Structure formats: C-alpha cells, structure tokens
Amino acid sequence: MSSPFADTLKRLRQARGLSQIQLGQQVFVSNSTIARWENGSRLPDATMIARLSKALEVDIGTLLSTVAASDESPNVIMVDDNKPILADSLSVLEEAIPNAIITGFIWPQEAIEYARANRVALAIVDIELGTTSGLDLCHTLLEVNPHTNVVFLTAYPDYSLDAWGTEACGFMVKPLTLEGIRKQLGRLRYPLMRGAGT
Q: Domain 4-70 - what CATH class?
C-alpha cells in the first residue's frame, strides 16, 4: 500500500542513486526495513527520520510532514498524575479521536521514553505533575519531535500565561470535555491528518 512517506522515500533514495541495501547501511537498518518503509507497511520513528534526513540530504521537516500524512493512527498521549482524572480524560479522547492510538501516563519520564520510541502527534499535558513541571515536559517533548502538538490541561487557569511562554499550541482547563478537545483539534499547529473526530 502506497503512502506519501513511502513514495517520497523511494523517490529520494533513487534520486541519490542508492539501493535499499546501501541506504539501510547508512541508517543502520536492514534492507528489508527500508523495503517495508517503501511499501507503506511500516513507518520509521523520529530517530530514523533524522538519520534518513541526513543520508538523503533532505530537510527533516519534509520527511516528518510525509510521515504525518501517511500515519492513519496518530499517537496521542496524555500525562496527568491524578489517576481518576487520567482515566476519565482518556475516555473522552477515545471518543473524540476514535482512530488514534491513545496512551496515558502518570510519570513524565515514561511519556518521554514513549515519545522517543514513537511519533507522538498530540500530547495533552497537565502542568503540575508532582515534582515535575508540565512546562518542562513540553520542552522535552518538542526536543524529541518539534512536530508534536502539545496542549496543556490544568485545573489552574492562572498558568495560562506561563503556558503561552512555551511552544505549546493549546491550553484547556479541567475537566477535559468532548467539546473542548474537538475545538483544540481544529487549532492544532500540525493537524492530525486522519482519525480526528468532528
């Protein structure tokens, strides 16, 4: 099955005169992995996108945008150290974005590790996370992938000015509602290409 990323990768590889084996050697994966990326059955993670960008001498944003357009199931994470609020919010997210892969985290470090292993399209982050600041978590998530949409969700509206000092693209006051998240989906800096509810 073809996809924007698969087509772009194949075109760029051929333009550089590289075989799948040669490209695989440059980014340290097998040629069968390259083949899966080019036939659209798999998508690379953020680390691989960076390696491909360097090997193919193309801007990383070009590859990231085609990955986003190819990914039918965007990864959405929510980070909140309050378990009941997290559980309720995940239910709302599942209704709002039925085709997304939605994962909740209580511990910020686990969310960071997940983001390093998966392309996170949308991160909904509480600002007060025990001893960790959601503002710091936002910065880290955007270092991992600058195309992650970060939306803050907090019980304290006074944080809104601090939140806008980051590169987040949204701010909501708890509790998370279906109407609220749908409005935010329409305002994302990097729209979810597929799977968002209306």
A: mainly alpha
